[in-house]
UniProtKB/TrEMBL annotation:
Gene: ZDHHC7
Reactions mediated catalytically: L-cysteinyl-[protein] + hexadecanoyl-CoA = S-hexadecanoyl-L-cysteinyl-[protein] + CoA
EC number(s) given by UniProt: 2.3.1.225
Membrane topology of the entry: Multi-pass membrane protein
Organism of provenance: Vulpes vulpes
Protein name as catalogued: Palmitoyltransferase
Cross-referenced PANTHER family: PALMITOYLTRANSFERASE ZDHHC16
Length: 319
């Protein structure tokens, strides 16, 4: 995973206290053809669109994630459970593992296809600045890379080519930034992958014990050498997945409870905002009081029609 942030520049007085020595540039270059009237409408329509980053490395990592989960499901279902003589053992574990896999992949999709909190491009216009009704002495910042007014706690991602509100980091495994609007789905993704990895490890252990005690030719429909190779690879995959996602899940929960993104923690930024600690932070990310809905990656999902965004919108598709 990599975090990328562009430098902001002071453009005119705003409410922030982030006084820095920065270069002064015009709000928009003379050759920019940004239509200020479309800024509010594009931001309003963003919630109804699916975000997709066209990054080669990220797309490869995302496809690899899906293939590894599908491989684990194949081994668990066809190598371990279907050949089992215990009907209820196969049914219970099959339903449980496949539910975890579906929830994990659904969370992955929601993380990848949800706008993480991108600031509208090119909104740093004189008309927009005048509409802010700034007080004398106030300071705001403009990102020179995407020509937008940079909100507090926003950072520029060079891969998404956008400023992202409360950007935590850019994760190639979900081919997206983890930010204000999709952090809950990323947390669910890491949790469900960790749980399915533990479940797969337990099933692998029970399968090895069953095969050693009985006949290898009877404990699986595959030949003994193929069965051993498939189980060993699944064990290694599950161990690596569990280690990685469990650590990420823990750091994400810690960040949410302390209302501090990973970028802010690494840069040791002093908070200029009112922190939402512990359960207040959890409610702000997951929405509403604690409930089973927090565990549901399908909340708020709506279908749309695939369309390509204009080039000026950045390296993403919208749906």
């Amino acid at each position: 995973m990599g975090d990328t942030e562009g430098c902001a520049e002071e453009i005119m007085p705003s409410s922030g206290h982030r006084l820095r020595d920065v270069e002064h540039h015009p709000l928009l270059a003379e050759n920019d053809s940004y239509d200020s009237s479309s800024s509010s409408s594009s931001e309003a329509d963003m919630a109804d669109r699916v975000w997709f980053i066209r990054d080669g490395c990220g797309m490869i990592c995302a496809v690899m994630t899906w293939l590894l989960v599908v491989y684990a499901d194949f081994v668990v279902t066809f190598v371990m459970l279907l050949p089992s003589k215990d009907f209820w053992y196969s049914v219970v574990n099959g339903v449980l593992f496949n539910c975890l896999a579906v929830l994990a992949l659904s969370s992955h999709l929601r993380t990848m296809l949800t706008d993480p909190g991108a600031v509208p491009k090119g909104n740093a216009t004189k008309e927009y600045m005048e509409s802010l009704q700034l007080k004398p002495g106030e300071v705001i910042y403009k990102c020179p890379k995407c020509c937008c007014i940079k909100p507090e706690r926003a950072h520029h991602c060079s891969i998404c080519k956008r400023c992202i509100r409360k950007m935590d980091h850019h994760c190639p495994w979900v081919n997206n930034c983890v930010g204000e609007k999709n952090q809950r789905f990323f947390v669910l993704f890491t949790m469900y992958i960790a749980l399915s990895s533990v479940h797969a490890l337990i099933l692998c252990g029970l399968q090895f014990v069953s095969c050693v005690r009985g006949q290898w030719t009877e404990c699986s429909d595959f030949s003994p050498p193929v069965t051993v190779i498939l189980l060993i690879f699944l064990c290694l995959e599950s161990l690596l997945f569990f280690t990685f996602t469990a650590v990420m899940f823990g750091t994400q929960i810690h960040s949410i409870c302390n209302d501090e993104t990973e970028i802010e923690r690494l840069k040791s930024e002093k908070p200029t905002w009112e922190r939402r600690l512990r359960w207040e932070g959890m409610r702000s990310v997951f929405g509403g009081p604690p409930s089973l809905l927090w565990m549901n990656p399908f909340v708020g999902f709506r279908f749309g029609q695939l369309q390509t965004r204009p080039k000026k919108g950045g390296p993403e598709f919208s749906v």
